[in-house]
Write a structure and sequence with these properties.
By secondary structure, this protein is α/β, with parallel strands linked by helices. The protein is built from ten helices and twelve strands. The protein has two domains: 152 residues; 147 residues, no CATH class. The strands form three sheets. A six-stranded mixed β-sheet has the order 2-12-11-1-10-9, sandwiched between helices. Strands 6-7-3-8 form a four-stranded antiparallel β-sheet, with helices on both faces. Strands 4-5 form a two-stranded antiparallel sheet. It comes from Methylobacillus rhizosphaerae.
């Protein structure tokens, strides 16, 4: 079996990866390189989904959720915290902020009431994001959360002919959120307030091309939506031995690192040694880029390549 693994969310403390001996061994004996693209962009290419003005992640998420999706232009609107630096703002982490269902509903209700005359409706999404549907396609190019997170937002704000209007709307949203009761309670609980939203992942419902894998395991709604467009069903992530038992020829697994962890990497190392997996490519998402590691069964014999700490790669 050929296997592709996307670690879409590495732990904040990268030193935690140094406890994963099997993963470090795979990295030492494989071929390591950087890719200047995010994991969502790479996956869209894999599924044959073309970039529009943005990657159409919001539309894919709607499809993955099984929610209503029409011919409009969909955007992800993620509740975030903008942190004031000396004379700029940076996009704080985590992004999006995780809200309770009550907080989520209250914030969206206020936004929907305020922007009712503008025809903007903020819909509940998944994985911390909200969804907005526009009836016409805006001239707007946005930046992903992963690429902008932790950085000065000046160069990552929406661009395009309609950008000025959307920046004005964002200013209105920030003013509305500033004294919102939800944020007052969050600050009293020493939680980050939701003081803005981040627009990204815009596009109309895309079409998918040919895909080079015959099975997909993921809990991410965008991946599930891409799989649905390709005529497949994305299955929940399972232990590697269960996946091997399904006798796939080519397989894609996408998950946060914490979902797989040390045990999964140890099983993968053994599967490579036993030739149950003939080739693996691992993608580590990191600050809008990816570190990739490719390895075949023959590479397991390269015992002279000693494991290094994760800091040596990132």
């Amino acid at each position: 079996m050929k296997l592709q693994i996307y670690y879409s969310d590495l732990p904040d403390g990268l030193h935690a990866l140094n406890d994963n001996e099997a993963l470090l061994r795979i990295m030492a004996r494989g071929r390591v390189q950087w890719m200047d693209e995010g994991w969502e962009e790479n996956l869209c290419q894999l599924f044959g989904i073309a970039r529009q003005q943005d990657l159409p992640l919001a539309a894919l998420a709607r499809i993955g959720l099984g929610a209503a999706v029409d011919s409009g232009y969909w955007l992800l609107a993620s509740p975030v915290n903008l942190a004031l630096q000396r004379d700029t703002f940076s996009l704080g982490q985590p992004a999006p902020l995780w809200l309770t269902p009550t907080e989520d509903e209250s914030l969206r209700a206020s936004l929907n009431q305020h922007f009712a005359e503008d025809g903007l409706v903020f819909l509940s999404g998944a994985q911390g994001h909200w969804h907005v549907c526009l009836k016409t396609v805006p001239d707007l190019v946005t930046t992903s959360l992963a690429r902008a997170a932790g950085r000065d937002i000046t160069h990552y704000l929406p661009q395009g002919a309609d950008a000025q209007r959307w920046r004005q709307l964002l200013n209105e949203i920030q003013m509305l959120l500033f004294h919102h009761p939800v944020n007052q309670v969050r600050e009293a609980q020493n939680k980050l307030p939701v003081n803005s939203i981040w627009l990204h992942g815009g596009g109309e419902v895309p079409t998918a091309g040919r895909i080079s894998v015959d099975s997909v395991y993921s809990g991410d709604v965008c991946v599930q939506g891409a799989a649905t467009l390709s005529g497949m069903a994305a299955m929940p992530v399972q232990p590697l031995q269960h996946i091997l038992g399904n006798k796939h020829e080519t397989c894609l697994v996408q998950a946060a690192y914490g979902e797989l962890g040390c045990e999964w990497a140890a099983e993968l190392w053994q599967a490579l040694k036993l030739r149950q997996v003939s080739e693996v490519i691992i993608y580590f998402a990191w600050e809008g880029r990816m570190l990739t590691v490719s390895m075949t069964t023959n590479d397991t014999w390269k015992f002279w390549r000693r494991p290094k700490t994760i800091e040596a790669y990132i």
